[in-house]
Amino acid sequence: MTPRDAADDNHANTPPGSRWSDLDRPPLNTTALRRGLVREGGLWTGVDVVQRTGSTNSDLVARAAAGSAAEGAVLVAEEQTAGRGRLDRQWTAPPRSGLFFSVLLRPREVPVARWGWLPLLTGVAVATGLSRAAGVDTALKWPNDLLVTVGGEERKAGGILAERAGDDGVVIGVGVNVTLRAEELPVPQAGSLALAGAVSTDRDPLLRAMLRSLEDWYGRWRGAGGDPVVSGLQETYVAGCATLGRVVRAELPGDRSVVGEAVAVDADGRLVLATGTGLQEPVGAGDIVHLRSA
């Protein structure tokens, strides 16, 4: 990757002395991102890039509560110090080694009962955008993990977290490991686009690709009143879901767990497990562990 010219207009986002601390990880170009994403009649109404923050999700939820963020606001951090995944797991990575961003959506036309599809919709959009821009085969682990293959092994390279923002809003956070090196992996099961053989790790086009894909899928879903069948979302998610057809363990709230074959994703976005007792149990919330192929 070639570093940008020193006159890059994003220099205000980077403290003196740290701008080129890692030449393989140049900062994002805020002005170019806004130019490429914010347009009249489009979903994205603003793109802000901060050098460092605790959590983009927490920050954007607070902005929404204060009335200072419109639908389509995008907040990106070069580094997160208190990033969160599902079940309040911590998400950390070196500065500029990934893409960590949150978006504010207000799907007023969609019944709240269908909002549970938003994390799955985001997963489809992220996987689609990255496949096109990075040239990496991706898969989705229900409900919100992005998987890549590194050395023949399935690794988690990204995750999604959705949080309510008032009565009519949802903030969706996305974290993707882009240039994380093997020695930087937080756990052996982690991966990155670079380790998966990405043809490009330039974060600017990768971010644009993900957000454009999200705008497209969100528009389809919202236009269909949130119907996952009419919008094509359910079919597309199922086609890219690596969890289906496998024996998994669902670790559920209340210290309960269920083992079974993942056989479907139902109309509510729940994972349906066929258990050893012959019953089919839908799982709407929980941690899924892939045990083996069915």
TrEMBL record:
One GO MF term: biotin--[biotin carboxyl-carrier protein] ligase activity
CDD domains: BPL
Entry EC no(s): 6.3.4.15
Comp. bias (Basic and acidic residues): 1-11
UniProt xrefs under SUPFAM superfamilies: Class II aaRS and biotin synthetases
BPL/LPL catalytic domain ranges (all copies): 37-222
NCBIfam families (alphabetical): birA_ligase
This protein's name: biotin--[biotin carboxyl-carrier protein] ligase
Organism in which the protein naturally occurs: Streptomyces anandii
